[in-house]
Amino acid sequence: MIEVENIHKSFGDNHVLKGISTRFDKGKTNLIIGQSGSGKTVFLKCLLGLFEPDEGNIYYNGQCYSELSIKEKRNLRQEMGMVFQGSALFDSMTVEGNVMFPLDMFTNQSQSEKQDRVDFVLKRVNLVDAHKRYPAEISGGMQKRVAIARAIVMNPKYLFCDEPNSGLDPKTAILIDNLIHEITQEYDITTVINTHDMNSVMEIGEKIIFLKNGHKEWEGTNKEIFKTDNKAVTDFVYSSELFKKVRQMYIEERN
Ligand SMILES: Nc1ncnc2c1ncn2[C@@H]1O[C@H](COP(=O)(O)OP(=O)(O)OP(=O)(O)O)[C@@H](O)[C@H]1O
Description:
The chain is an alpha/beta fold. It contains ten helices and ten strands.
């Protein structure tokens, strides 16, 4: 679980995060949504410990980040997996090499232990024949699976994903969303996803927080987002005609 308590972050005069408080539960897929420039990436980077908030605290399973020693922060960092926008794989390494990288860097496991773990996670993301291929030789959807395998290879307690669907066709995007959602539940991970994808919001948004100009404008579940009267949320989420119609149908069905 991650608890966020009144965090503020500025860059010079630009007050980007303005007192955000929320909670992300474990085993749940938590989404951050909001317009471009609303502070989603800065918020995600604060959760990852890449930016230190100017004010406020973040608690990871009850441990206050700012009170941890350097060694404790390093240990916490190893409990975090990250799926970067665009996958961010190492082009010169095979699929297997990419997934093994965190184990090489942060563990003293034997080669056969590492190999077993890599085989296990690649199987879990449904990639069984790609071990020896290079990122350039596989599709965008497969690259995303490799990125997910790499993010979970260290058995993380926290998984952060920045736009995991960007650049994918709608069908592959749904498969990737479902994979992240299943893994979150299966391994009881606290997952936080920064997304623009409204389909993800509807399908896997067990908890959604909507940022507007650095404030938390709204939070709730994918079921509640259908019903909310918050105009900023409805203008943003239902900006497309298709989603407007879906919402209308939902409301009519309920009446
Ligand atoms: N390292 C930085 N230094 C200075 N300003 C920054 C830095 N990172 C982000 N900002 C500023 O913080 C604000 C919010 O940016 P952020 O990237 O969090 O938006 P976002 O909601 O993720 O947008 P998008 O959806 O387009 O990725 C912007 O005004 C941006 O210029």
